[in-house]
């Protein structure tokens, strides 16, 4: 499950405070409730990148249908899966870059959830690790 429950509360300065029980480091705010939700979504992507850099898996999402939630985008999930696959294979960014015949800065970009990457680049990276990237379409949880 990739939806993380959010607590949204009016703050004492007229803004909305957002926290996430599953990810205590996710604390943000917005001038409106919609802006607070957007900030939480962006913060979730940033936290996913921090976890990937520290070689830590994100905890599972915990949002129930109807609850305010932030969803980790598919591209960020793919990048997290690549980081996890590299970690399990004992392959560093530099080693993956060599195997792919690219600069190691490109691998860093492949792992950064805030940087747009082509699906073909991710497929190549997974293939280099003898893995296949699969895409699955499922109904969205409420």
From TrEMBL:
<dbReference type="GO" id="GO:0003677">
    <property type="term" value="F:DNA binding"/>
</dbReference>
<protein>
    <submittedName>
        <fullName>HicB family protein</fullName>
    </submittedName>
</protein>
<dbReference type="InterPro" id="IPR035069">
    <property type="entry name" value="TTHA1013/TTHA0281-like"/>
</dbReference>
<dbReference type="InterPro" id="IPR010982">
    <property type="entry name" value="Lambda_DNA-bd_dom_sf"/>
</dbReference>
């Amino acid at each position: 499950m990739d939806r993380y429950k959010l607590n949204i509360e009016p703050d004492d300065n007229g803004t909305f405070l957002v926290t996430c029980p599953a990810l205590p480091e996710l604390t943000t705010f917005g001038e409106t409730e919609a802006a607070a939700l957007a900030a939480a979504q962006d913060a979730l992507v940033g936290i996913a990148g921090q976890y990937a850099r520290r070689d830590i898996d994100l905890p599972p999402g915990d949002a129930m249908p109807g609850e305010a939630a932030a969803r980790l985008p598919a591209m960020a999930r793919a990048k997290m899966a690549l980081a996890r696959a590299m970690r399990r294979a004992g392959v560093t960014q530099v080693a993956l870059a060599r195997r792919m015949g690219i600069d190691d800065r490109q691998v860093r970009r492949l792992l950064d959830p805030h940087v747009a990457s082509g699906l073909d680049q991710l497929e190549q990276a997974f293939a280099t690790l003898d893995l296949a990237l699969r895409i699955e379409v499922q109904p969205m949880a409420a």
